[in-house]
């Protein structure tokens, strides 16, 4: 299974906010820290805001901020927010054209695999992903100096 760039970027945004001083940053800062497109991050942040995972604020001192405690944000929630198709095989999707759908055991096997996958993601929080917060701060070039800004 491979997730879209938007799901990947969502996790990057959230990791940045989790380790950033004040748990806040602008889209431009986050995009620069991860060397990704600001245009794509705007869409990602809008979707995260619609889901109540982040809050956006305009104007001076504005930016993006975590809406909830990072220990309450699961990776599974983020993936479900950002992705709209988890059909590992055709018979798990809306359209079913497979000739053996309904008579083979594949649907059950892949359905159980997807359930197990989400059980792991639902058990992992943003805090778990950011366990090495000092390492993340270094990789993202975040310094404590920014805390006053």
TrEMBL record:
Gene Ontology CC entries for this record: cytosol
Keyword Transit peptide: no
Keywords on record: DNA-binding
InterPro entries in the record: TR_Rrf2-type_CS (IPR030489), Tscrpt_reg_Rrf2 (IPR000944), WH-like_DNA-bd_sf (IPR036388), WH_DNA-bd_sf (IPR036390)
GO molecular function, one term: DNA binding
DNA-binding listed as a keyword: yes
Cofactor(s) required, per the database record: [2Fe-2S] cluster
SUPFAM superfamilies: Winged helix' DNA-binding domain (SSF46785)
Protein name: BadM/Rrf2 family transcriptional regulator
Entry-linked PANTHER family: HTH-TYPE TRANSCRIPTIONAL REPRESSOR NSRR, WINGED HELIX-TURN-HELIX TRANSCRIPTIONAL REGULATOR, RRF2 FAMILY
